């Protein structure tokens, strides 16, 4: 079927519409509608990825209008992969969300699922589109829905976090829009391929330079690159856990995708690394982001907050890799989009299970958790190892490429930052493990096979299955890194 | 060299991994659980041994699992060295499993299912490290082993083990991420491969002497499981673990994986020729010598038996590094074969320490005088184990020390020969008094009448006598191991 690319985005959009209507009539219907919508979307994403691998880039014209006038979806290996990632995570998270939503936002379940679907639609659109202005509109759709979601969360802190997020988010979007405006001014086109064809002739133009810088700053704000990250920790930790589980792995990663798309497809490596002279500065910024994210994570007393700072740290990995200006670094950055999304998802799934049982996850609430929630903790441990970069989990392999890229370029500070961040993450997670494993302190020497057994109080089975599946996939994806690099990333970069 | 593709190395690694779910699900039935451990352990040993004839013929068994990047796959290659290490680890795992039942049940420890599960995981990783075909695979199993051992070290879950666990991780994980990982990636970025080969992976002129020095130091200190000073302090700290852990992991599996990794770096990554050309062997030998002597001296002052054994282990591990760093055939042989010889000797000593603790509750050497009369078999085994560590006949340890000394002569490093001799004296000083006092000393509570024999239970006694026995057997028949080393290092 030729319409799979459209279906990826249209299915959740229609589902959002129906779920919204259903919320008025019979709220219980919203959930199955959402599941069906995202299942279709995920399936279409799988089919599209297979088509792209087999027969190359797909150009899909909305309603048959030809570019540069019409809206074009251009799906190559890179966004086919990201599309599957987004729809897959959104789908899996939706399965795990049923119980969390029931517990957290049961009075507004209908609106929750509607906004959830709209958010996913926006992300998928951002990933699929081949049009610069369209990209702006879709970024705004994702942003607006996530403002709403954050406000649905924590009753005291949610609204303020949301407001903060709105202010900074709007600034970011304006930067990007301005950049696109400049580009349109000088090229007269908004289609990515079209613009890319025109730009080489305008090499020395300061308008292009301004456009590029504005677009980048806009995207960096949206992806929370240090020091533009201040909105992220509060927004993510005070939103409903069912939403945080999805937004944390996806939102920033999709924005990294947008950055790479602009760099590779629109402006081109030649322009960025030969005409402009800012790559070194950006790599330094990324280095700072990694270290700052790690250090700030160390200072946190709440598990959710801690993880949000790890996201800030991980963003530095991908930005640094992409700006390394060589194939190894870019390979690492793209592989890390995939890996980081999965491992952050796994971490937040585990945290979601904890929140379900414990209500709040300050580090001191986690005492004895290995005994109480052994399965959740197993998933958490695997995800943590992936963040630290222990083979064979996938986090190791993207770090491998990133460090290789840094060594090739001679960016030793970036390589050192990656190593240090591994060490910081090890400290961070073992701090958590220690609390879960040793506390509450037993009296003296714990003897007796049976008396120290703690009753197991696990999260619902639907959440556990998803947690288990995702954390095991960390190892599978890790072991197949070679295949992913050879079939998706390297052909894309050639 | 002829290679055979076979799935056996993978199975040998996985068998103890796949048994873990069964162990967990049979946690309420200890006898069922323990029989599964034996089944898995036996299968593992048989799988390892079934590869032995092929290896002795001079062939290698290979299996590539996942191609990560060119020259860096997750892959197995069974050669002589790996085979030697795997035989030692797999056979001692089986013995330790018996011992472990006696120990854990004798003390009525908590969390036994967790204990045996992580034990099985640790031994899987050990065999994986032994069979690794390249540095990336070795690193993978090295890290898995570090993490699998953590819950074993901190088994008691009290404040003391928490601190020890922290120290354990800081040193083991800190060095492997901070030193080995960058060094490994640097090697890969220079050469494009991490595949072990006796010629080394660096082409002529690819590596300058300063770069080689720094890399070598990063590896030698980075594989902190080998306990090279100053990265040794995790080992005495790890003695808070139950004795089976100290015995198998901290005298055999974990520490030997560290040493084994250094052996692989010297013989498989740099290659003996390159290091002799740069004259870097002496540097490593100096570092090892300092560790040998200093830790022997510290061992003298330890009153807690397990801690004394730990410092003795640190010094003995450096023998292996020392021998390999001699870079001569005799030195390499003496160093590598000490992996096996020391394993059987030291595990006997640890088994004895644990048996004494279970039978009498005594941990300190000062409490142990006169104990040999109550526990004659244990003390006899202790004596044999001690002979092995000191390096006296008729124990296997003599064979390795003999070759090490010949190696120093071969390399014309007479000063370093003195290090070995001095260390032997120190070893004798810290072991023999224990045995002497044990048999001939007077204990506080002892009356004048004949002493009743009060040995620990058979689950503890049989393993320690068995390993002591093997230690003697190895003195007379080291042939298989010698042949494996010669094949593995291409010395024939």
Characteristic key phrases:
A: 494 residues; mainly alpha; 20 helices; 2 strands; 77% helix; globular; B: 492 residues; 3-stranded mixed β-sheet; 19 helices
What fraction, in percent, of the residue positions of chain B are helical? over 70%
Biggest sheet of chain A: strands side by side, in what order?
A: 1-2
Question: What is the strand content of chain A?
Answer: under 5%
- Beta-strand residue fraction of chain B: under 5%
Distance between the termini of chain B: 13 Å
Chains forming the largest contact:
A-B, 37 and 41 residues
Which structural class should the secondary elements of chain A be placed in? mainly alpha
Write down how many β-strands of chain A occur, each being a DSSP E stretch of 2 or more residues.
2
**For the largest beta sheet of chain B, what order do the strands appear in spatially?**
1-2-3
Low-confidence stretches of chain A: none
Order of helices and strands of chain B: EHHEEHHHHHHHHHHHHHHHHH
Helix and strand arrangement:
The complex is a heterodimer of chains A (494) and B (492).
Chain A: H1 4-25, H2 30-55, E1 58-61, E2 72-75, H3 77-104, H4 109-128, H5 132-152, H6 158-187, H7 192-198, H8 206-223, H9 232-238, H10 241-267, H11 269-275, H12 279-298, H13 303-322, H14 327-358, H15 369-372, H16 374-388, H17 394-409, H18 412-438, H19 461-479, H20 481-493
Antiparallel strand pairs in A: 1-2
Helix pairs in contact in A: 1-2, 1-4, 2-3, 2-4, 3-4, 3-10, 3-14, 3-19, 4-5, 4-10, 5-6, 6-8, 6-9, 7-10, 8-10, 9-13, 10-13, 10-14, 12-13, 12-18, 13-14, 13-17, 13-18, 14-16, 14-17, 14-19, 14-20, 16-18, 16-19, 17-18, 17-19
Chain B: E1 3-5, H1 8-25, H2 30-56, E2 60-69, E3 72-78, H3 80-106, H4 112-131, H5 135-153, H6 159-191, H7 209-222, H8 234-237, H9 243-270, H10 272-278, H11 281-300, H12 305-326, H13 329-360, H14 371-374, H15 376-390, H16 396-410, H17 414-440, H18 458-476, H19 479-488
Parallel strand pairs in B: 1-2
Antiparallel strand pairs in B: 2-3
Helix pairs in contact in B: 1-2, 1-4, 2-3, 3-4, 3-9, 3-13, 3-18, 3-19, 4-5, 4-9, 5-6, 5-9, 6-7, 7-9, 9-10, 9-12, 9-13, 11-12, 11-17, 12-13, 13-15, 13-16, 13-18, 13-19, 15-17, 15-18, 16-17, 16-18
């Amino acid at each position: 079927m030729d319409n799979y690319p459209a279906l990826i985005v249209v299915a959740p959009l229609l589902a959002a519409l129906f779920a919204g209507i259903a919320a008025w009539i019979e709220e219980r219907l919203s959930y199955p509608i959402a599941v069906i919508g995202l299942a279709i979307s995920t399936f279409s994403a799988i089919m599209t990825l297979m088509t792209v691998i087999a027969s190359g880039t797909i150009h899909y014209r909305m309603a048959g209008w030809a570019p540069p006038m019409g809206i074009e979806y251009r799906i190559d290996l890179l966004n086919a992969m990201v599309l599957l990632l987004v729809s897959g995570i959104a789908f899996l998270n939706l399965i795990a969300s049923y119980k969390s939503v029931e517990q957290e936002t049961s009075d507004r379940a209908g609106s929750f699922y509607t906004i959830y679907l709209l958010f996913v639609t926006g992300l998928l659109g951002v990933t699929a589109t081949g049009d610069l202005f369209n990209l702006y509109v879709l970024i705004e759709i994702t942003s607006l829905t996530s403002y709403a979601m954050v406000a649905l969360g924590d009753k005291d802190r949610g609204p303020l976090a949301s407001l903060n997020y709105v202010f900074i988010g709007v600034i970011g979007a304006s930067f990007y829009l301005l950049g696109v405006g400049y580009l349109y001014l000088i090229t007269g086109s908004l289609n990515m391929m079209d613009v890319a064809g025109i730009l080489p002739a305008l090499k020395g133009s300061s308008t292009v330079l301004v456009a590029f810088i504005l677009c980048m700053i806009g995207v960096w704000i949206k992806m929370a690159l240090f020091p533009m990250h201040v909105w992220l920790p509060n927004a993510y930790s005070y939103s409903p856990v069912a939403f945080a589980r999805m937004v944390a792995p996806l939102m920033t990663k999709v924005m990294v995708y947008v950055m790479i798309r602009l760099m590779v497809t629109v402006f081109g490596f030649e322009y960025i690394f030969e005409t402009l002279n800012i790559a070194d500065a950006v790599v330094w910024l990324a280095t700072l982001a990694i270290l700052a994210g790690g250090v700030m994570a160390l200072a946190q007393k709440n598990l959710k907050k801690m993880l949000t700072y790890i996201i800030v740290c991980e963003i530095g990995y991908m930005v640094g890799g992409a700006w390394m200006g060589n194939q190894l670094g870019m390979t690492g950055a793209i592989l890390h989009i995939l890996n980081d999304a999965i491992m952050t998802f796994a971490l937040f799934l585990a945290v979601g299970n904890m929140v379900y049982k414990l209500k709040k996850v300050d580090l001191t609430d986690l005492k004895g958790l290995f005994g109480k929630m052994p399965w959740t903790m197993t998933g958490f441990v695997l995800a943590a190892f992936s963040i630290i970069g222990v083979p064979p989990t996938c986090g190791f392999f993207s770090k491998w490429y990133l460090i290789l890229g840094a060594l090739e370029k001679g960016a030793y500070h970036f390589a050192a930052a990656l190593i240090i961040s591994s060490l910081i993450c090890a400290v961070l997670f073992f701090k958590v493990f220690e609390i879960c494993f040793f506390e509450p302190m037993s009296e003296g020497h714990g003897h007796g096979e049976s008396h120290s057994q703690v009753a197991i109080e696990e999260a619902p089975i639907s959440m556990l299955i998803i947690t288990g599946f995702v954390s095991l996939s960390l190892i599978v994806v890790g072991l197949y890194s070679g295949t992913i690099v050879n079939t998706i990333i390297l052909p894309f970069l050639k | 060299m002829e290679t055979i593709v076979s799935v056996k190395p993978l199975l040998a690694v996985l068998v103890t991994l796949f048994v873990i779910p069964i162990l967990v699900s049979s946690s309420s039935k200890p006898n069922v659980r323990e029989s599964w451990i034996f089944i898995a352990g036996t299968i593992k040993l048989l799988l390892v041994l079934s590869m032995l004839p092929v290896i002795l013929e001079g062939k290698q068994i290979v299996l590539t699992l996942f191609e990560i990047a060119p020259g860096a796959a997750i892959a197995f290659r069974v050669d002589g060295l790996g085979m030697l290490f795997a035989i030692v680890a797999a056979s001692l795992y089986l013995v330790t499993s018996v011992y472990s039942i006696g120990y854990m049940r004798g003390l009525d420890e908590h969390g036994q299912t967790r204990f045996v599960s992580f034990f099985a995981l640790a031994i899987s990783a050990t065999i994986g490290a032994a069979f690794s075909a390249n540095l990336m695979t070795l690193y993978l199993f090295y890290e898995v082993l570090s993490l699998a051992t953590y819950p074993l070290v901190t088994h008691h879950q009290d404040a003391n083990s928490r601190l020890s666990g922290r120290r354990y991780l800081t040193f083991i994980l800190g060095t492997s991420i901070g030193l080995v990982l960058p060094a490994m990636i640097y090697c890969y970025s220079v050469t494009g491969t991490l595949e072990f080969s006796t010629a080394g992976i660096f082409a002529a002129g690819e590596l300058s002497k300063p770069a080689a020095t720094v890399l070598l130091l990063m590896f030698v200190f980075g594989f902190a499981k080998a306990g090279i000073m100053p990265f040794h302090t995790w080992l005495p700290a790890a003695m808070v673990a139950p004795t089976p852990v100290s015995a198998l992991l901290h005298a055999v599996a974990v520490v030997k994986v560290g040493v084994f990794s250094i052996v692989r770096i010297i013989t498989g990554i740099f290659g003996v020729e390159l290091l002799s050309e740069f004259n870097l062997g002496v540097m490593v030998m100096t570092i090892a010598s300092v560790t040998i002597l200093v830790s022997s001296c510290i061992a003298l002052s330890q009153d807690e038996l397990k801690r004394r054994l730990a410092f003795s282990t640190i010094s003995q591990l450096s023998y292996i590094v020392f021998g390999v760093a001699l870079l001569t055939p005799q030195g390499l042989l003496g160093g590598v074969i000490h992996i096996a010889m020391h394993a059987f000797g030291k595990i006997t000593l640890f088994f004895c320490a644990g048996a004494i603790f279970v039978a009498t509750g005594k941990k300190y050497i000062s409490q142990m005088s006169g104990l040999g009369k109550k526990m004659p078999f244990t003390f006899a085994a202790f004596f044999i184990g001690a002979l092995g560590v000191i390096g006296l006949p008729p124990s296997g340890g003599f064979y390795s020390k003999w070759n090490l000394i010949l190696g120093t002569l071969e390399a014309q490093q007479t000063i370093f020969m003195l290090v070995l001799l001095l260390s032997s004296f120190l070893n004798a000083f810290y072991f023999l008094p224990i045995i002497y006092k044990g048999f001939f000393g007077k204990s506080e509570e002892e009356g004048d009448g004949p002493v009743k024999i009060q040995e620990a239970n058979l689950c503890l006694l049989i393993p320690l006598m068995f390993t002591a026995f093997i230690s003697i057997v190895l003195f007379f028949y080291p042939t298989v191991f010698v042949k494996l080393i010669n094949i593995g290092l291409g010395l024939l």
